[in-house]
Design brief:
The chain is α+β, with helices and mostly antiparallel strands. Helix content is about 35%, strand content about 20%.
């Protein structure tokens, strides 16, 4: 407390009263779900331009001593996306559909338990400290997403009238090298149609999707008319995605 968004607004020098600023917390899917909220505001006529910012310092809570395999997956980073009702055609990337599904059976598969109200720092400082590191059941998470992600993608693409063959580029959340390789095989996308940056950046949590989308554009991977699929998973466990067309 207060929301990080207010601090970002202050740093950007946006005058008070001009625009609301608040956080959207969906862990690794936060930027994507913030895009959904932004699109709803724009379509309702309540906003013309919305700034979505995702900033992560994952390295502050990594379990290097107890689980270095998990700790080594993550990195720090920040990215931003502007959604607008009036974007110049040369830079336009139209948002088609956004969807998210939550499978709460996986609630305990990814967690950083301390920091909220469940563990009281004043009553149990040792317990608070012990739970101040991120933990992940990679095998359990892999099993759940393996079952759910392909069907989720098919449902999302169907809303846009697409199939997997229509997708020109996949922009996935960069969870881990193995998870990304499995997603490519399992969902039937050719490797050359999938952005792969995780070996360079690590898992950037909420910043992963906007940074990967930016790199795709800077590398010329999104041509005019291209159909783009953004896809990812988050703690909870949730699966989210969006379809965009240049």
């Amino acid at each position: 407390i207060p929301a990080t968004a207010a601090l970002v607004k202050q740093g950007l020098g946006i005058r008070d009263g001009r625009a609301p600023a608040y956080d959207v917390n969906a862990t690794c899917l936060s930027a994507l779900m913030a895009m959904d909220v932004a699109a709803l505001h724009i379509r309702a006529g309540r906003a013309r331009n919305v700034l979505v910012v995702a900033s992560e310092i994952a390295t502050r809570a990594l379990p290097w001593k107890t689980d270095p395999g998990t700790a080594g997956l993550f990195g720090d980073g920040a990215g931003a996306i502007v959604l607008s009702s009036d974007t110049p055609e040369a830079t336009r990337l139209n948002l088609r559909e956004i969807a998210m599904e939550t499978w709460a059976e996986g609630y305990d598969l990814c967690a950083l338990p301390a920091g909220g109200t469940r563990i009281d720092f004043h009553q149990d400082p040792d317990g608070f400290a012990a739970n101040s590191f991120f933990r992940m059941d990679g095998h359990g998470l892999f099993k759940l997403t393996r079952r759910r992600v392909p069907d989720f993608i098919n449902r999302l693409l169907a809303k846009s009238g697409w199939t997997t063959r229509d997708v020109d580029l996949v922009v996935p959340h960069q969870a881990s090298p193995l998870a990304l390789e499995h997603m490519i095989r399992r969902c039937g996308f050719a490797e050359e149609r999938v952005m792969n940056t995780v070996r360079d950046t690590g898992n950037l949590v909420a910043a992963s999707l906007p940074i990967t989308l930016h790199r795709a554009r800077m590398e010329g991977r999104i041509k005019t008319g291209a159909k783009v699929l953004m896809i990812g998973t988050s703690a909870g466990v949730s699966i989210g995605g969006a379809t965009l067309q240049a």
